[in-house]
Amino acid sequence: MRLCVCRLTLVTLAVSLVAQQAAAELPPGSYVKLRKSAPIVLSVRITKTAAEKDDVAALHRVACTATIEAVERAPEKTPLKADDTVAFDAYYLSSKAAQRGFAGPRWPHGLKALGLEEGWRGRVYLKREEGKANLQPAAYGESFQPLPKKVDPAAKSSQSPFLLGAAERDVTPPVGFDITHYVRKSKGVRDPLYVRAMVLSDRSGNDVAIVTTDFIGAGFEVCDQLRQRIRKELGIQETILNASHSHSSVGLGIPSEKPGDNSPLNTYHKRQHQAIIDAVAEAQQKQQPVALYAGRAPAQVGFNRRLVNDEGYTFMGVNEKGPVVPWVNVLWARSQRTGEPVAVLFEHAAHPVIVPHTSGLTSADYPGAATARVREELGEDVIAMFGQGCGANINGFPLRTTHENAELAGRRLGDAVLEAMAEGEPLEADTLEIRSGRSWLPSNDPPNLETLAKWQQWSSNNPVRTEHLKKLKRLIEQNQNPPPRRFDAYAVMLGNDWCLVTMPHEMFCQYELWVDEAAPFKHNMTFGYTNGGQGYIAVDEAWKLKERGGYEAGALPNWGGNGSMSEFFGPPQVGSEKIIKDTIQNLWPSR
């Protein structure tokens, strides 16, 4: 398995320094701000480079000449325009300076790592600097962002055995509906909600529908209904149904079967279902021979949100040292007929909670902005699909602030997707296989009656909790345990090249990190929030904290625990982490 190495991206300096100590590395977010404020932003294709050879200088200059494809930002009276030629400088760190531990803003170690050569295509962030004939980098190492080819001739000559089609439908709810979490009335639409589908099959007839949605979530019952309907009406045996988990959207509902129920809510639920069916049907109808590619790029939309106070209790905040998924995984398809991209599936793990909970505008949050950014570059005909990873314990950052911040985070993620595409590789697999497995995660054992009596006394002034504890008492008296949680895992495998692992529920990011380390494939992608869910699934380390486990993992008598008021009366048992990993591992071929 290839682990993600958060490599230093194309890095440069705006000045040529001679063997001396550089300024310290910039604080987090500085490069983003520098790109955002860059006075000149161009899309270019490099036609010529000339690297200076200097054994003394710590930074070596590379003079670049390029054709401008588009002027995205420039001073009002600029001479720069599309199809013109532009000259700019880039820099890389010499091997001697790197060995000495040269410290400062990011830059690549060596000319090869810089990556700028004839034919390179991408976005450059530049500025004019007095005394310099060429334009200079405006954002140090983040000044050069590679972009994928519009057309890849290799795709047209490939002999891929795969067929793929993709489609989408708008499922934005009417104004006036409840936005889910926090619940508030919709007063308008900031950006639309979509369901998007790709249907992938091999020449042996194995097929799968992968559906991504901008919904906050969906339960097992509704997912089972839709997946069975797709199997019956369209003949596709397996469907992967993922929710982005945007907290400024709505859930996937179950239409009422009552005759004459034409209520607005039921009408919308029927529309949701039909939109998914129609998108899958259109994707199936549009299937064509494609070449498949996979890639990964560094990306981080949010931070781990679990912190522990001096008393040992878990609370929510920004934990910069906590685990996160520091990448975006990408799978994309190019038409064998034209060499152009058809569809892009990408996955990252972070709660879409950057839009403020006080906003009355429906929004897809950062995933919507990310898909828009990808299509902005590749074209509106390309179906860009966001899949939510294992982001249960990661909050998008900055939390609940502005729509503009959500858009900025999404565009950065979209840029990372484009970078992964620019540097990805074709898949050599010739088979598609889908495997699934189901396990049950046991709930915590109920307390003894003496302990329960204490909980009842503590909650005597709360009628809702009192009634809930009565139900728990009946279980104890009947010598029964709370029910287990259903856990369905899927593996969509393209030979040994690529695997999509999917899990239900809101899964901690540690599961995605484990998949990446343990899976016997060259490329991985991991979904949480898929094919149903019943709340948060933490890890043993968190469950062992019991009532101190916080919102995601807390057990009674912590009423703030996500599962405390559920039919499960708390989280899964310690030991469920092994059940989950065993279930997934059993889907993979033996090493």
Topology (elements, then pairings):
Blueprint: H1 30-37, E1 40-51, E2 59-73, E3 85-93, H2 95-99, H3 111-114, E4 121-127, E5 136-137, E6 144-146, H4 153-157, E7 162-170, E8 178-179, E9 184-185, E10 188-189, E11 194-202, E12 207-213, H5 220-234, E13 238-243, H6 264-285, E14 288-298, E15 302-308, E16 314-319, E17 327-335, E18 341-348, E19 361-362, H7 365-378, E20 383-388, E21 394-396, H8 403-423, E22 425-426, E23 432-441, H9 449-458, H10 463-477, E24 485-494, E25 498-502, E26 506-507, H11 509-518, E27 523-527, E28 536-537, H12 540-543, H13 550-553, H14 576-585
Parallel strand pairs: 10-19, 12-13, 18-20, 25-27, 26-28
Antiparallel strand pairs: 1-2, 1-4, 2-3, 4-5, 4-6, 7-11, 7-14, 8-9, 11-12, 14-17, 14-22, 15-16, 15-21, 17-18, 23-24, 24-25
Question: Could you walk me through the main structural features you see in this protein, from its secondary elements to its overall organization?
Answer:
- The structure is a single chain.
- This protein is α+β, with helices and mostly antiparallel strands.
- The protein is built from 14 helices and 28 strands.
- Strands 7, 11, 12, 13, 14, 17, 18, 20 and 22 form a nine-stranded mixed beta sheet that branches. Strands 1, 2, 3, 4, 5 and 6 form a six-stranded antiparallel beta sheet that branches.
- The chain is globular, with a radius of gyration of 26 Å.
- Residues 1-23 have low confidence and may be disordered.
